[in-house]
Design brief:
Layout (H helix, E strand, L loop, with lengths): L4 E5 L2 E2 L6 H19 L4 E8 L3 H10 L3 H18 L6 E4 L3 H16 L3 E11 L4 E3 L16 E11 L5 H10 L4 E2 L1 H10 L7 E2 L1 E3 L8 E2 L2 E6 L2 H4 L2 H4 L8 H4 L4 E5 L3 H16 L7 E4 L2 E3 L2 E2 L10 H8 L1 H11 L6 E3 L1 H30 L12 H22 L3 H22 L1 H4 L5 H25 L4 H10 L37
This protein binds one RNA strand through helix 2, helix 6, strand 9, helix 7 and helix 10.
Amino acid sequence: MSKQFYITTAIDYANGSPHIGHAYEKVLTDVIARHRRLSGDAVYFLTGLDEHGQKVQMTANKEGIAPQEYCDAIAEKFQGLCSTLNISNDDFIRTTQARHKDVVRQILQDLFDKGEIYRADYKGFYSKRQEQFLQEKDKVDGEWPEIFGEVEEFSEPAYFFKLSQYQDWLIDFLKTNEDFVFPRFRQKQVLEFLKEPLNDLCISRPKERLEWGIPLPFDEDFVCYVWFDALTNYISAVGYGQDGFAEKWPANFHVIGKDILVPPHAVYWPIMLHAAGIPIPKQLLVHGWWNISGEKMSKTLGNVVDPIQLADQVGPDAVRYFFIREMNVGQDSDFSADLLLTRYKTDLGNDLGNLVSRQLNMGGRYADGKVPAATIDEEPEQELKKVWDENTATVIEQYEGFQFHRGLDTAWVCIRACNRYLEVRQPWKLAKSEDATDKERVLTSLAYVAESLRLAATLLTPVMPTISAQILELVGADSVTAYEGNLTFNVGTLEGRSLGEKTILFPRIEG
RNA sequence: GCCAGAGUAGCUCAGUGGUAGAGCAGAGGACUCAUAAGCCUUUGGUCGGCAGUUCAAAUCUGCCCUCUGGCACCA
C-alpha cells in the first residue's frame, strides 16, 4: 500500500471544556483533510486528548473522582465536539490508552538503552505559601517577591534527555528544510530561539509527587513528564513498531497553535525522533489565536466561547465557514457574536442561501422542477461562465497555499456574479413574455444557475460538507467525492435532473 | 531588553513599484423570482510617523511610534 496523507491536530489537554480555539484547530485540520481527499489523496486524520499530568490529577481529586473517570468525561466532550462540527477524523487517540502507553515506554527504554537518557539531580525552588515550584526567572531583581513567602531550594533525582547535543543537527535540519514550519516567519522564530544554547530536557517527575502518568520503564519510581508522553501520540496512534506504520508515518502535517511551536513541536519533537531513528514529520502548520472582541480569551476574563453553543445557534457548517473565512492561517483573528451573525446573514443567508431559494422557486414555477436545457448563449451567459472559468482554479490554488479565507472570498465573487446574472436576465419578467426566445432565455438562465450552484457546492465541500451536499442534491447533482471532473463549468451537466423542494438553508436569526 | 507579526475607508481585511480596492455598516434608487432578499448608484482613506532611493512607493531602505505574541522545563 502506498503512503497515506497523514495529518494531525495537537492533542488537547484534558483540563476543561472545549472552547473555540480547540474547535478552530479541528475545523482547520478537517478542511485540509477534506480538501486533500477531494484532491485524490488517501487521507488519515488523527486528533485526540492528552490526559496525564498534575492538573488533571488535581482537578479529579477536587471533584472527588478517579483521574480516569474525569478524563472519560472530558473525552466524551471533545469527541462530542468533533461529531457536532462534522470533523472527519479517522481516529481519536487518548494518552491513557494502552496502545499509547506501550509506545511511550518502548521509546523511552530505547533511548535509555542508547544512552540518550541519563539520571542527574534536578535543582529547583519551592514556595510553601503559594504551594508552587519556582524558577530563577520568577525572581525580581535577584530576590524572590514577597508573595512567595519563604522559598526553599531543593534537589531531587530526575531523568534527562540529551537534547543539547542535537542542537546543531536541528539548526542544520531547519536550514535545509526551509518549509518545515508554515508560515515561514514562524520558522525564523525557531531559529532565533536556537541561537541560545539548549539545556537537556527533564523528562521525569517522582511518583510521590505525580502519580497520574506513565511510569518510566527503567525506573518505576518516576513517571514520564509531559512531552515524551504527549508528542508521542502522533506515532503511537499509527502503530509505531508494527506493520503498516510506514504507510502513515512520517506525518504530512501537524496542525498546531502558535503556543506549542517553540519549543515542543519545533525543537523537542524533531530531536526526539531523530535520536530514536524515526523520520521527521514533513511540515508543521501553525495557526494563530482567536481574540474575543479584541481581548484575549481567558477564563479569568470570563469571555470563553463555547463552540457547541455556536453550532446550536447557526449550525455547524456556518461555524466552520466563519472560522475559515475570518482567520488568516498563521495570524490572530477576532471573534465576536456580531461578526459571526453578520457572516451568517450576509454571505450565507443573503448571497448563497437566497440564491438557492430563488433558483428552486423559479425552477418550480417556470421549468416544472427540472433543470432545463440551455439553448441560449448570449453575453450574460458567456460572462457568467467566464467568471467560473477564471476563478475555480484560483480557489483551489488558494486552498493549496492554506489561503482558505481568500479561497472563500474568491468563491463568493462567483456566487455574487450569479446573483447579478439573474438581475441581468430577469427570468421573472421574461417569463411573462410571449416571445419564444424569451422562454428559452428563462430556461437557459435556470440551467446556468443550477450549474453554478453545482460548482459552488463542490468548491465549498471542504468547508461546509453538509450544506454543500444539500445544495448538490437540491440542484439534482451527484454527490462529490473528487474535484477531478467536477470543476469545469459545463451547462449541460444537470440537464433533466430534478430540482428539490424549496429549502431555506440559512434561516434568518432574530436578534 | 532581544526577536517576530500587525498597523490601508466607521468595522473586517485584500493589495509588494505605475493614477488607492472588496465585503459589511451608512445614504439614495429601480425592481420583485427570492430568506424585507438580490441588483444599481453613492458617502468615506494625507495606506502608523519622519526621512531616503526612484521618472514613479501602501509597496524598496533607514530611523521612530503603537498593539500583539515568543524568549527553555510551561500540563
